[in-house]
Design a protein that fits this description.
This protein is of the alpha+beta class. 32% of the residues lie in helices and 24% in strands.
């Protein structure tokens, strides 16, 4: 049984027997995996505070192909993101991102780009002070792109018309916008306000460090969440709206 080492973000944990934990991790080298940390809940365990949700850690574990749970050997804390944990809204956004990742990613599919996006978004979450829901949307759009579900918010998916300043609509199956003219002959799912459209378009173009400069209205927050969640319900098996989103105060 080979011993492997990698960095990881702790997605979630749950108790196992009297003194152990099973943790779901998103790792740099192996994608999503689960490890059992034996004895970690004992009062004298040196790893007790390390295997906690959101923490960025370094793990050494016994890897066995085909096993759903691997055995933890050692772990070290890299970053506990205390600035995220000390703010309820930031914590909720981080948990929402991890919930989203957990329900959309299958076990042991390595994707270092997704891992880097995840770490960078949580790092950025530590630093920003406003409009933090934008980071949830940014991560969602980046994750969808990596999963092969890029949404087109820049032009009509039917006629390729750009600079859509009139009323626009969205087709879930097509994964993009439909202009006013094309909507007359095509089945559409719902319309999109120009404010929400501009925000989504910017999120696909802007660098991460500028994302929270966008100021969404309360109406746009509800609308963008609905657009993204309806799209994912259709295209991704097992998708569930993150419960943690309910804890975010606008």
């Amino acid at each position: 049984m080979p011993i492997e080492k990698t960095e990881a973000i702790v997605i979630k944990t749950h108790k196992y027997h009297e003194t152990s934990k099973i943790a779901t991790l998103y790792t740099k080298r192996f994608g999503k995996i689960s490890v059992i940390a034996k004895g970690i809940r004992k009062t004298d365990s040196k790893y007790g505070g390390i295997m906690e949700t959101i923490n960025l850690i370094s793990v050494i574990f016994y890897y066995k192909s085909g096993k759903s749970v691997h055995l933890l050997k050692e772990c070290d804390l890299v970053n506990s993101f205390n600035d995220v944990r000390s703010d309820l809204n930031k914590t909720a956004v981080a948990y929402a991102i991890l919930e989203l990742l957990n329900c959309t990613i299958v076990e042991e599919e390595e994707n270092e780009k997704v891992y880097n996006i995840l770490v960078n978004v949580i790092n950025n979450l530590s630093e920003v002070k406003k409009n933090i829901i934008n980071l949830y949307w940014y991560f969602t759009l980046e994750l969808l792109c990596e999963l092969g579900f890029t949404i087109n918010f820049s032009k009509c998916v039917k006629c390729n018309k750009e600079d859509l300043l009139d009323k626009v609509y969205f087709m879930i199956v097509e994964g993009g916008l439909v202009c006013k003219e094309c909507s007359r002959t095509k089945d559409i799912d719902f319309d999109i306000s120009l404010e929400a459209l501009k925000i989504l378009n910017k999120l696909q173009e802007m660098p991460l460090h500028s994302v929270c400069n966008i100021i969404p209205s309360t109406r746009s927050i509800m609308e963008i969440n609905e657009i993204l969640h309806r799209f994912m319900r259709y295209h991704i098996d097992g998708f569930k709206v993150p419960v943690a989103l309910k804890l975010i105060s606008n």
